[in-house]
Each structure stands twice: as C-alpha cells, then as structure tokens.
Amino acid sequence: MIEVKKVSKSFDGKKILHDISATFYTGKTNLIIGQSGSGKTVLMKSIVGLITPESGQILYNGKDLLAMNRSEVHALRSEIGMLFQGSALFDSLTVLQNVMFPLTMYTRKSMAQRIKRAEFCLERVNLKGVNNLLPSEISGGMQKRVAIARAIALNPKYLFCDEPNSGLDPRTSILIDELVSDITKEYNITTIVNTHDMNSVMGIGENIIFLNKGHKAWVGNKEEIFTAKNEALDDFVFASNLFKMVKKYVVKEHLESFFDIKEEG
Q1: 55-60 and 29-33 beta bridge pairing
Q2: Contacts 24+ apart (CB under 8 A), 222-226
Q3: What pTM does this model have?
Q4: For residue 100, which of 88, 118, 124, 233 is within the disulfide window of CB 3.0 to 4.6 Å?
C-alpha cells in the first residue's frame, strides 16, 4: 500500500499540488485521472521520487520516501516497475535484452538466470518468437507488452503506469488494460495508473483519484463514478455523448431499482 499525506508542490511560485492525501491499495488498479494541467503527472512523479514535494509524506508500507537515505531509496527502486507513456524501450537492444535490463542493473543473477526470467516475463505478456527482434520491428501494442514484461522483471511490489494506452487503438488498449489488471491481482502489486482514457476508467478503475486544478476533488470506483455529484468530474468523464448516454442509463436504472425497493417496502 502507498499513502500520500498532505503533499504539496509548486513550480516557479505556482502551486501545482494542494495538500493531496490519498491511499493506493495493494492488489487493486488505482487510477489518477484529471484534465491536462490538473497535477496528475506531478503527483505520480512525486510518488515515484522523481520530484520532491515541498511538504507532506509519501509512505510505502508505512515508510516515508522523503525521509529515506540513499541506500534505502536504491532498495525501494528495485521494488518498483515503471511503464512509461512511450514504452521507452532501448532501440539498439533486442526485445529480450530490453526485458533483461533491470535484472542487470539491480541483481547479481547469472546470464542464464536473467535470460530465463526475461523469457518467463515475455511469455506472461503473451509474446513469443520476438525475443531477438528490435523494438522497431514490432507493433506499438507489442512494444507496450515488452515494456510491461520489463516492468515486472524484478517481480515488483509497486507498478506505475503513465498513460499506458497512449497511441494505441481501442482494441489493443483494452488488452493492455486487462493485462495490467491481471498482473496486479496475480502478483498482488500496488498499481497506480495515470490516465485520461475513459475506457480504462470504466474498465479497470477499482480505486480512482480525480484531481481538479491541483486539488483532490473526488475518490471512488468505476461504478460510483456514474452517480457521483461532482460537476468537475462530470465535465471530465462525460465529455463525450456516448458516456453521457451511459450515465443517463445507469442513473435511470438506479432510480428505478430504488423505487421498486420502496414499493416493496
């Protein structure tokens, strides 16, 4: 579990995060959502340790990241997997070598052990026959799966995904969402996904943190989002006519169910 307590951050005198407090649960897909400029990327980078907040605490199973020494931070890094927006694979390395990279950086495993682990991770994300190919020789969706395989190579306790569906077609996006969700539960990982993809929100949003202008404006899950009474959230989530229609349908069903219960009573 990761807890964020009263975290604030400013750049050039402008406050980006205003006393954010949130809990991200183990074994669940935790989503951070919000408009561009809402502070969601700054929050994620603060949690990972790429940005240092001016105040607050970031607790990894009760231990404050901001109070850790260098060796403790290094040890924590080995427990973190990162899935970047553009996959961030090394162009000059093969698929297998990309997945092996964190094993080389953070472990003393033999070459044979690293290869075995990398091959296992590639099989786990349903990639076969591509080990010796370069990233440029496979599709965008396959590149994303390679990035997921690399992210789980160290068997992390924590997984961070920054816009994992960026640049992908809807069908591939759903496959990536399902893969992230499956891996989260299978390995009991604390997963945090930074996204503006409403399909992801409705598909895998088990714990959703909505940021609005640097403030935590709402917390809930994918079911509760339909009946939430939050104007800023509505403007963000239900911007498209499709999702507006879905919300009207869900609310209608909710009300009809409520009145049926009252009549029975």
Answers
A1: unpaired
A2: 225/201, 226/250, 226/251, 226/254
A3: 0.84
A4: 118
